[in-house]
Amino acid sequence: MEIILSNASSKPIYEQITSQIKGMIMSGKLQPGDPMPSMRKLAKELHVSVITTQRAYDDLVRDGFIVTVPAKGTFVSAQNQDFIREENLRKIEEHLSEVSELAKQNGVPLESLKEILEVLYSEQE
Asked: Whole-angstrom Cα distance, residue 105 to residue 75?
């Protein structure tokens, strides 16, 4: 599992770990049932404290991305498609909010934005 941490990021280390693991799960790089490294092993690989990896894992468990089975380990949970869809919709809303703000700042009318989105969306089909 490749996780890249940045000291220059405004995000705390545990959030960087959490968001990258969520991304791997949502993209399919990590599949339901895949084993996760132990908190100690991940901490050692990333050169961070076990408390940092524990906090990341706690957030992932809380959000339903991973599950810990006593005496067996931690695994990617069976994906809840509705939850993943909601998470992706939230990301889409964030991006569209940024686009909307940038368009307003530069005088781009709503109709032009709609046209651009329709073109981009149809190119993906």
From this structure: 45
Domain count across the chain: 2
CATH number at residue 50: 1.10.10.10
* Inter-residue contact 87 to 22 (CB < 8 Å): yes
Say which residue, 82 or 50, is predicted with more confidence: 50
Residue with tokens 């000291």: 7
What is d(CA 25, CA 23) in angstroms, rounded to the nearest whole number? Answer: 5
Q: How many CB atoms lie within 10 A of CB 36?
A: 20
Q: Are residues 59 and 32 in the same domain?
A: yes
CA pair distance 56, 3, nearest whole angstrom: 12
Query: Which tens digit of pLDDT belongs to each residue from 1-35?
Result: 899 999 999 999 999 999 999 999 888 899 889 99
Model pLDDT, residue 8: 92
pLDDT at position 86 is: 80
User: Do the Cβ atoms of 76 and 63 come closer than 8 Å?
Assistant: no
pLDDT in tens, 31-45: 889 999 999 999 999
